[in-house]
Write a structure and sequence with these properties.
heterodimer; A: 286 residues; alpha/beta; 2-enoyl-CoA Hydratase, Chain A, domain 1; 8-stranded mixed β-sheet; two-stranded antiparallel ribbon; 9 helices; 10 strands; B: 259 residues; 44% helix; 19% strand
Chain lengths: 286, 259
């Protein structure tokens, strides 16, 4: 595995911030809730939350990276790793191609290193536009490599999760990624290192039942849906109406599974402070 | 046999349940109940006993062998307290250096309001986390259905076997049909596409061995017993660290060699 080289990001969008380009200042976003029209740069200034109605925009992995990490600090790892079709699942190849075109990403998670207010960390963010951030073999492999790399370089890991769970089209191999990534998270933890997860809308299924729930500190975005079974499945199975706010981040905090709710505009500051609080003395456990 | 027939056969009420195998395999079994946090989940059976005169911890997903029992045990679909019961017993096994034998038979983790309120995702995640770090050997056998994270929570093992009539799957064919084909009736197509037979699992290197069960399951207990016996002997000489590393490497290689 080690002989596989790590590639620098071929994606130059990160290095060049188009939003600062005045010529680019045109209406590019419309709030789905209140129909307010915005430019990309305004949306970014407003932390991807509509200032008029409070609607939280879906954020791509690249937007998360630019939002949280110091400008120009991100160094992408394993950017060429992508899922194949091990089961020859009908329609999966086409689905993968569509996802690659619509999201401009090769897979449903982006991994790498960067810094937050000058403090180095390993970082991952799920890509909701790529098959709902689902985990197949490539996602599992990228995350496992990231945790192993972080262990070797003694870095904290910060991860943003958005996922429908294990990717059905890769069958049992998707399920195995839950165990594989759990193993890498566990090893990183046993080395005395910090892992913070930020659970975003929606984090469900096999991801909620593995690395999303294994962090030292679990933060969540307000109103994010977090749960193992999805609400529709529960309603169909139990034929019960679900209570208001069921499986929302606020509910998960009340039930004891989320440590802290964290609004977008405060995330960088909170993450930075948490990294500072864990600085230094991260000795290996005997 | 087509894939959906295999699914039905794996779910058949005629198949012996985990309890029967425990009776045939474990001497002086003592069932230990409860997770010490919330309650006792009848879908998970845990306890201690002797396997070939050596103390072992046994963890099982138990479907029940009568209609009444199946209802009481929620058809082997465990709630968070069931997984936490097994977690407690895993930690005990590590403390007293006992190997862990797991019998897996479930359509998946329980789905419901209570299960979510008590953290089904967290409970499974914690089991995976714990198992990936255990320094005692763990061996799992899928005796009927191995459904999704609910099965994996007792199958992060050093070696995993399947009875020849068992299935193992990322989610139920019914679930796959409704997610992929948006049509719950397409369950036969989904069963085929998921590749969930024991032969498929061996091909994907997800299991070590297929165990013969015979036409009336008469070979099942002896072949499970032989597999456990052989595995225990092979792992006898490994140090705690080697046992943990072997398990890590076993899962680490799954779905990785491509770029």
């Amino acid at each position: 595995m080690e002989k596989l080289r790590r590639f620098k990001s071929p994606n130059l969008r990160l290095e060049h911030d188009f939003s600062k380009n005045a010529e680019n200042a045109r209406v590019t976003a419309v709030c789905p809730a209140c129909k307010r029209e915005m430019t990309d740069s305004l949306l970014e200034q407003e932390h991807y939350q509509c200032a008029r109605c409070g609607h939280l925009f879906k954020m791509s992995a690249r937007q998360r990276i630019r939002f949280v990490l110091d400008e120009g600090s991100f160094f992408e790892l394993d950017s060429l790793l992508a899922s194949t079709d091990p089961l020859e699942f009908p329609g999966y190849k086409e689905k993968l191609n569509q996802a690659r075109i619509s999201s401009s990403e090769k897979e449903a998670v982006i991994t790498g290193t960067g810094s937050i207010n000058g403090q180095a960390c390993a970082f991952f963010a799920s890509e909701p536009g790529f098959m709902m951030g689902s985990m197949g073999a490539a996602v599992g492999e990228k995350l496992s490599r990231l945790f192993e790399y972080a262990e070797e370089k003694r870095l904290s890991v910060i991860g943003y999760t958005v996922s429908g769970g294990a990717r059905v089209q890769e069958g049992i191999l998707s399920l195995m990624q839950m165990a594989k990534v759990s193993g890498a998270v566990r090893k990183h933890s046993d080395a005395g290192l910090l892992y913070i997860a930020v659970l975003c809308d929606a984090t469900t299924g096999g991801v909620a039942a593995s690395f999303a729930m294994q962090a030292d500190i679990i933060l969540a975005e307000p109103n994010a849906l977090i749960g193992f079974a999805g609400p529709r499945v529960i309603e169909q199975t139990t034929r019960q109406k679900l209570p208001e706010g069921f499986q929302k981040a606020e509910f998960q905090m009340e039930k004891g599974f989320v440590n802290k709710l964290c609004k977008r505009q405060e995330q960088k500051e909170i993450l930075s402070r948490l990294l500072k609080l864990h600085e230094g003395d991260q000795g290996e456990r005997v | 046999m087509n894939a959906y027939k295999k699914v039905q056969a794996a779910r058949s009420n005629q198949r012996p349940d985990a309890k029967k195998y425990i009776e045939q395999m474990i001497d002086g079994f003592i069932e230990l109940h409860g997770d010490r946090r919330f309650g006792d989940d009848p879908a998970v059976m845990t306890g201690l006993g002797f396997f070939e005169s050596r103390p072992v911890t046994v963890l099982a997903l138990e479907k029940g062998d009568s209609n009444e029992e199946r209802l009481r045990r929620n058809f082997g679909s465990a709630n968070p307290e069931g997984y936490r019961k097994s977690l407690w017993q895993m930690r005990q096994a590590e403390k007293f250096n006992r190997p862990i034998l797991c019998l897996v038979d479930t359509a998946g983790a329980a789905c419901g309001i209570g299960a979510e309120e008590r953290g089904q995702g967290q409970a499974i995640a914690e089991n995976l986390w714990e198992m990936m770090g255990l320094t005692v050997p763990v061996f799992s056998v899928i005796i009927g259905e191995g459904g999704s994270g609910g099965a994996l929570a007792l199958a992060c093992a050093n070696e995993v076997y399947m009875l020849e009539g068992a299935i193992y799957s990322v989610l139920s064919p019914e679930g796959a049909a409704s997610i992929i084909y948006k049509d719950a009736a397409k369950v036969e197509e989904a069963s085929e596409a998921l590749k969930l037979s024991a032969q498929d699992m061996l091909r994907f290197q997800v299991i070590e061995k297929i165990l013969p069960e015979g036409a009336d399951y008469e070979l099942a207990a002896p072949s499970i017993k032989a597999a456990f016996s052989d595995a225990l002997k092979r792992f006898d000489d490994l140090s705690p660290g080697e046992i943990r590393d072997q398990r890590y490497k076993r899962f680490r290689r799954l779905g990785g060699e491509k770029e």
